[in-house]
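Dear support,

I submitted the protein below through the web form. The confirmation email said the job was done, but the results page showed an empty box. After a refresh the structure appeared. I'm attaching both so you can tell me whether what I see now is the final result or a partial one.
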Amino acid sequence: MSSISTDILIIGAGPGGISCAKALAEQGRKVLVLERRPEIGPKVCAGGLTWDGLLRLVPEDLIERSFRKQHIFSSCQKTVVQEENPIIATISRKVLGQWMAEQAKHVGAEIITNSKVSSVDGLRVTADCSGIRKTFVCSQLVGADGANSIVRHSLGIPAEARGIGINFQIPSFSERMEWHLSTRSFGSGYAWIFPHKNTVSVGAYSPQAKMSAGRLKRNLLRWAEGRGFHELQELPCQAALINYDYRGYQFGTTWLVGDAAGLASGLTGEGIYPAIISGETVAQQILDPRYNNDSKLSALLRRQQQHRRIINLTNRHSVCSLLLTELFILLLRCHLLSFHALEMAPSLQKT
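What the results page shows now:
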């Protein structure tokens, strides 16, 4: 069987892989992206984009709803955060993915869908492409293939710190974007109500150390029932793992971005913005090995580590989880803390 050669091979056409591909193709590099799904975009995702993250870069006609107010609840308190600009807007994850893919293809990146990678041996990758087994050889390999990354596995890097997100997309309408921080139901995670154009995303996220997927779903259904979402029992749900076990992103000529690198926030589950930042950083370093202007990625890593320390503390002491949650709400109410202290933003890849 003959091999297909390319300069740079990217596994995964999510936001991280596509951002990396676009940045490389713009500079004339030969880039090939393999995506295991038949189409680009669909993924378990609450669909939230923040003003400080990706929102300002997305065309307005792709946005479904935008919110200047955030309604935040704990077991004992509630508060409303309001800003001049939209804090969070909702978007279809499918629409976002396909828009990003078109941007990458426009500058020369090639994307092959329905291509499931079966093995990675150094810079040699074997995949089933629409039922045909093919082998690809490259000079640089980028793993952008999510929390269960086969590229990460090929490097022998475990992924032990992970979270779980569960999402229902309900045909309904809601006026308010809501966050519910209940330590009893969701540990150091949270539940959300994110209104879209014709549907409402209702879901929950929690780090896995203290919350199994089954328990999280049961707690989510019980919580949602108490808020009038009686139909969830009859609707299909989607679930996704979120990897926040960061152990580096460059391994010789093999790179990891986004969830594959463990760059999601363990506290919020946000993965889209970290994927894009890491994808662009990896592209710049492939283009110029001397590139070291990675201030966005460095800031993201500092925030991710802060979030992980909070998780470790609350997982060891349940009382700490309750106290920190109530303190967070109190500081928001007193305007002593910005809502953005929790960003990276709220979307499952979650997100």
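Response: this is the final, complete result; the empty box was a page-load delay. The helical segments are 15-25, 93-106, 150-154, 183-186, 213-225, 272-287, 295-316, 318-333.
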